[in-house]
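#random but structural
TW: two for the price of one
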Amino acid sequence: MRCVPTLRSDPHRFLGFVSILLAVLLAAGCAKNPVTGKREFSLVSQDDELAMGREGHQAIVAEYGIYEDPAVTAYVDSVGRRLAAVSHLPNIEWHFTVLDDPVVNAFALPGGYVYITRGILAYLNSESQLAGVLGHEIGHVTARHSAKQVSQQKLAGLGLGVATVFSKTFSRYSQAAQQGLGLLFLKYGRDDENQADQIGVDYSAKSGYDPRTIPDTYAMLARVSEGSGGERLPSYLSSHPDPGDRQQRTTQLAAAATGNRTDLVIGKAPHLAHLEGLVFGSNPALGYFEGARYIHPAIGFEITFPAGWESGDKKTAVVSVAPGEKAMMQLTLAQGEATSPTAFVTSLQSAGKIAGANGRSETINGLPAWVGRLQVAGQDGAPVTLAAAFMQAPHRSGGEKLLFQILGKSAQPGDADEQAILTSARSFKRVTDPTLLNVKPDRVDVVTLPKTGSIGVVVPDLGPQAIDLEQTAILNHKQVGDAVEAGTQLKIVKPGRKP
């Protein structure tokens, strides 16, 4: 059985192609696809997939965080395991994780790791729609689509890079973890998306969920994607592009999978019950921007980044990038223990983690600090000079002392961008103002309508809300002019508390 691609149009080129790949193919060979049963060319072994999933999972949790709500976690896990039990790989160790991220997305890593953001969870209207999304992601795993992506990247000699200006924040992870993170920013092809749609519909029906709600999910996602942008993760339709006529095709697939069955679960009320109180949008308690000023209430610090730079935060890092990407800086918690910032720099030198350091101890806004330059080895082994600052400050909760690390890179040491990095570092300080610290996120509120009318009429009467009428309509898979009856349950978003 042929597993190697052919180049029929040019026999000489084909022979050259084979000679180049021969050593790789001898080590790789064919792998059986669990869904189709066919043997396929692959440069990724099952052990590779498990390593990418296991180590990638650790990196994803570190970067994006888990949504800490046991009831929501158990709910999603129960639906996922019900689907996994009827999948083509029921015996692998499946993991279903809700990420604390507002972006509307879901994705999977090889080896049985499936993720759904609280962002997309809020927009789903029923348990069967959740099953449809999770079934689609399980399908990507069982059909080995990620393994195919990695194999294609290796064949092209490109490697797996993270397509974002924040990619440098991932460099601390292992190769397997970086490959897992890199997969989040690659788009599946038309054939893979069609196959995952088919598999997701089949898994939903086989596990007792009604897949006829799936087309409405894609209609909602299309509306959400029109207003998306600037997210830390890709949006759903960015990483799962529409292969064409998706709503029509999934409608046909669902009809074929269900026939005249009337026993399939939709589960709107149970799903909405799990959404009550769900954090919606960015959580200001975990960090928020006011212009170039960044405040982190949970830990209790603030810093002002250079004006005009593009800044963004993750769970473990805040990154700011100059126009044209000619300079960047990153704020993280330093890894390791030290009695002072100066002692920490000394420990880096002693451990051989840096080639040299040139700086001095300072006091920054009452905090002990070290500011200067570090010499490190770049990816190609060439020396690289980084602007650096380390500050020690207590956690807001008291007691524990944290060591904050700012590393920056400009075109040349001493240039204006490096000065901007160091000026930003010296703006770091503790926050004590209750107005800045006592913030609360917006949350989903499930309400029962007291009267009949259109969305445009009944929703404004439901009290203060954090999103506009059109967004509320999308959240409920409605149009503003749609009529809704008294007694209907709707999702609205109650405003939290911000400065």
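TW: number two ↓
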Amino acid sequence: MTRSREKKVLGLAIGERSLFAAEVAAAPAPGGVPAVVRLAEMVYPPTLTPAQPAEMGKALAQFLRENDFSARAAIVGIPAKWLVVRPKDVPPADPDTLAQMLRLEAEAEFSTELKDMVYDFAAGDGDAARTVLLMGTPRRHVEAAQAMCAAARLRLLAVTPSAVALGAATGRAAGGHADALVLAVAAGGSEMTAQHGATPGAVRHLRAPTPQPAFVSEVRRAMSMMPRPTNGTREIVLWDGAGLDAAALGEQLGLRVRAGDLPALGVTAPDPSANGEGRRYASAVALALAGVGPGGVAVDFLHSRLAAPREARFPRWAVISAVAAVCLVAGAIFAYIDLRRQRAEVAAMRVKADGLKGPVATAGAFVAKVSFAQAWHGGDPRYLACVLDLTRAIPEDGVTYATSLILRETVPGPSRATPAGGSSADVPKPPEVRTLTGQLFAKTADQQRAQLLLDTLRRLPNFRDVKSGGTAGADRGREVSFSVSFTYVPVRQTP
């Protein structure tokens, strides 16, 4: 499984008697070669084992400080003896479908142990039919690796079999598609993988290299159960940490055995002259290289692709319905609060308007009185002008004279105004035109003279709506009494 690449990674290969640590730095530029910075072996104290992850983590932290390791990201490799491996023939399928099929295979084959195991698989690239390796390890080993790294203040990137990581690095460096057996030998035990390029076809845990005859016999039996090479030829790449001779081992097995070296993995070793000692750390270097190189780890129990998807505690429709209900209730509460606020504002405005009714009515009456009195200003004598115009209109014939005159201010009816507060009130509106309404009562000698005065008033521009109020006394040959009603519009004068 490909993980995000790091600049510097610590590979920790857990062994029977010791832990091998390798710090590898990524290539400084594209196309460069990663560099092995430090190598060290942590031999377990007599009272300490990998089954004590908290104490192991504290001891590991001290060990890393003493050996000047600076990387804080780590990949932990577990031994092959902790694995359960099953080859599975699978049809052509994409990665997601393949993972679902293998999950069903694991549930069917390991149903009683499924809750205590963690599973993942190693498969080559492509969608063609092929055999993949289904691998499992007890969950306690993965949890122990997590606890150990947490106690050592390390960021755990992956938990993978050390043999699978070394086989992938060896096969990738050998050309990508060559068949080989990768044999890693340590004093406490050995591990073998059958590789087709970077893809493992089998993983075996073997006994310790001593006594050598028994070891050779077990290697021969393991080889007989390995998948046959596709090209008919095979060699063993030996990563020796126990002092074996590659040529002698090849003669005993009847097979070409080639000793591996760290530069062959595509890294620069810290001391090429001490490469024989460096082979002991090949698994740790391969683990760290998986974190800084492009290949990643083939199997990762920490981020298993076969982990069952998390079941939702509530169905999707229930979650959506609950969210919709919460939004609806929240909206209703907000609307209710906003309605109460608006009602309070309206009530406050009504109280304020009711308090302004009296002042508004008083102010309106005052404005009407002032407007009415303004027309009586001394610089604008409307009544005097009306009397003067009437005097000029009455002919000086000695028989026509006025008996009475009634003049009134033209005041319009009340206007229906709506003051602040929302209620209607009768507020007097000041007259827009300075007009007078009058009625003239007069006497003259005959009907013709009365009509003459009426016509004269109608011709004057300041008199409007001139009407006759009737005559009396014309039939008895005496004076004629008559009346005239009119509207007088005076000329505005500047005071």
